[in-house]
Amino acid sequence: MSGTVENGSIVRLERIDARIEPYDWAYARENAAAIAAHWARISAGKPAMFNGRIMLQHRAAIRGGVFEAGYFETDYAAFMAWRDAGHPGPVIRNGFAMAALRASDGAFLCGRMGDHTANAGKVYFAAGTPDREDARPDGTLDLAGSVTRELGEETGLRVAELSVGAGWTAVIEEGRIAFMREVGIGLPAEAARALMLERMKTLAEEELSDIVVIRALGDTGRYDMPPFMRRYLAHIFAGDRSSSASRK
């Protein structure tokens, strides 16, 4: 497969080649006052919200199972204003890695964002928009490292307790690409949830208010879950049914 990156598609990838590049983002340059006003509104009463530096994606192509992308640095306030304004301007995406965490009994484990966060109440896999911590000395972005780092920071799970799959599943939308990497934990879902909730109490900063167990697509209707998460889970559960049927 090769060519453009199409909104609405779900694509299996062998790897991601992500590089940090110079880019003049006109939206941030031309809307400084509106960005500052928007940030003041959404961060009011949430002192834990931090306007740090992040990486957004300005170019993307898929060639031979490799996702090739260019990223540039901006600040979180500009990203939030642009996102909430409906992604104006040329194609920019928040291309982030997610740990699609699955328990030994097949259930998925998602986090519910705390009330003090920008996405309060939302339910999805551990993830974070790329930032300077993900940058390697050669100018590439370590999205694979981001998967286990964000999972550890949000749930307290350690790499040695996990099995990390190969390759990626990209869920592509306007303004967003979720790079899903399969991660397994050798515990049934309720035991894994209990472990994470206990570990979360010891974290310096608790981003999550709860761990949610998803055993079937119908479970997602009970939560405030973004559409891209539902699309991914529908894709995986459909694949599970196909695999089960072929073994009969």
UniProtKB/TrEMBL annotation:
<protein>
    <submittedName>
        <fullName>NUDIX hydrolase</fullName>
    </submittedName>
</protein>
<keyword id="KW-0378">Hydrolase</keyword>
<dbReference type="GO" id="GO:0016787">
    <property type="term" value="F:hydrolase activity"/>
</dbReference>
<dbReference type="InterPro" id="IPR015797">
    <property type="entry name" value="NUDIX_hydrolase-like_dom_sf"/>
</dbReference>
